[in-house]
Amino acid sequence: MSGFVEKPEPLQVPGLTHLHTGKVRDLYRNEAGDLVMVASDRISAYDWVLPTEIPDKGRVLTRLSLWWFDQLADLVPHHVLSTDLPAGAPADWEGRTLVCRSLRMVPVECVARGYLAGSGLAEYEATRTVCGLALPEGLTDGSELPAPIFTPATKAAVGDHDENVTYEEVAREVGAETAALLRQTTLAVYGRARDIARERGIVLADTKFEFGLDADGRLVIADEVLTPDSSRFWPAASWSPGRAQPSYDKQYVRDWLTSPASGWDRRSEQPPPALPAEVVAATRSRYLEAYEMLTGLPWS
Ligand SMILES: Nc1ncnc2c1ncn2[C@@H]1O[C@H](COP(=O)(O)OP(=O)(O)OP(=O)(O)O)[C@@H](O)[C@H]1O
Ligand SMILES: [Mg+2]
C-alpha cells in the first residue's frame, strides 16, 4: 500500500484550472496557459505522502530552487516566469507559488550521482554496477565515485517507486539526441552545484532533475532543483565512507517511521501515522539549515 494518507482537495481559485495534485506540488493552469506550481508543506517517505505537514517546507523548496536557477542560468534555461501571486490566489500561497512555462515534460528522472548511496549502493553491492555502468571494486557506502555518473530513472505515479533504467533505454524512449543532451546537461548542472555546495560545507551526493521541451523544442530545466527533497545533502565535516551518512533530507522522518516509537510496519497494509511535534520541528530545522548553508542567506 502507498499513496496519500489523506488526499488534499484542490483549491478553487478563479482564473485557475486545477491540473494535478503531486506528492508535494499542486499544479494549476492560468488563463494565459502558463503553469502555476504551488509547493505545499507535504512530505513523503516510503512512497507515502504523510498525514503531517512540515511548516515552511514549501517556501524553503521554492526559495532554494529559485536561488539555484540563478546559479545555473548560464548552463541551462529554467521554467520560472514569475514569482508574483496570481490574482485571487490565497495569501498563504505567497512564497511558494511559481508561474512557470508549461513544458512538454521529458518522462525521465535525470539523476546525477557523485557518491554511492541509496539504490546506487544496493545495485553496486549486488553487481558492481549502477544503472548498468561498471564501477571499480572497493567502493562503500558514501564513497565518492571516480567521476559523476548519469543514472536515469523512469517517473512513477504517486505511490510507485521510480525505477532505474539504462542510458540505452532512455535513448530508445526519447531519441538518441535528446538522451545525449539530458546526460550532458544533468552532469554539467550537477558539477556546478557540487562545487558550490562543497564550498559551503555540504556534499551533494546525488540529485534528480526534470526537464521539459519548450515550444521551440529547447531543453528547459523544470520542477524543483537541488532541494533536500530532490537531493542527498551531507554535512561535509562528518562525511566518512563506510557507513550511512547523516543528511539534510527526510532521513530523520524515515528513521522515526521505522523505529519502534512509530508503531508502524513499513511492510504492512497500514498507512503511516502522524509525526510527533519533535520530529516535525527537527525536520523543519534541517530544511532551514540546508537553505541557509547553501545560499549563505538567513531564512527570515
Ligand atoms: N514547467 C513544467 N511544465 C509541466 N510540468 C511540470 C513543470 N515543472 C514541473 N512539472 C511537473 O509538476 C509535478 C510536480 O509535482 P510533484 O513534485 O509534487 O509531483 P511528483 O510526486 O514528483 O510526481 P507526480 O506528479 O507524478 O505526483 C511533476 O509531475 C513535474 O513533472
Ligand atoms: Mg516531484
UniProtKB/TrEMBL annotation:
Domain of life: Bacteria
InterPro entries linked: SAICAR_synt/ADE2_N (IPR028923), SAICAR_synth (IPR001636), SAICAR_synthetase_CS (IPR018236)
E.C. number: 6.3.2.6
Domain SAICAR synthetase/ADE2 N-terminal: 19-270
Catalytic reaction equation(s): 5-amino-1-(5-phospho-D-ribosyl)imidazole-4-carboxylate + L-aspartate + ATP = (2S)-2-[5-amino-1-(5-phospho-beta-D-ribosyl)imidazole-4-carboxamido]succinate + ADP + phosphate + 2 H(+)
Keyword Ligase: yes
Top-level class of the enzyme under EC nomenclature: ligase
PROSITE patterns (UniProt xref): SAICAR_SYNTHETASE_1, SAICAR_SYNTHETASE_2
Pathway connected to this protein: Purine metabolism; IMP biosynthesis via de novo pathway; 5-amino-1-(5-phospho-D-ribosyl)imidazole-4-carboxamide from 5-amino-1-(5-phospho-D-ribosyl)imidazole-4-carboxylate: step 1/2
Keywords, ordered alphabetically: ATP-binding, Ligase, Nucleotide-binding, Purine biosynthesis
Database matches in Pfam families: SAICAR_synt (PF01259)
DNA repair in keyword set: no
Family, per entry: Belongs to the SAICAR synthetase family.
NCBIfam families: PRK13961.1, purC
Family matches, as PANTHER family: PHOSPHORIBOSYLAMINOIMIDAZOLE-SUCCINOCARBOXAMIDE SYNTHASE (PTHR43700)
Name of the featured protein: Phosphoribosylaminoimidazole-succinocarboxamide synthase
Protein source organism: Streptomyces yaizuensis
Lineage: Bacteria, Bacillati, Actinomycetota, Actinomycetes, Kitasatosporales
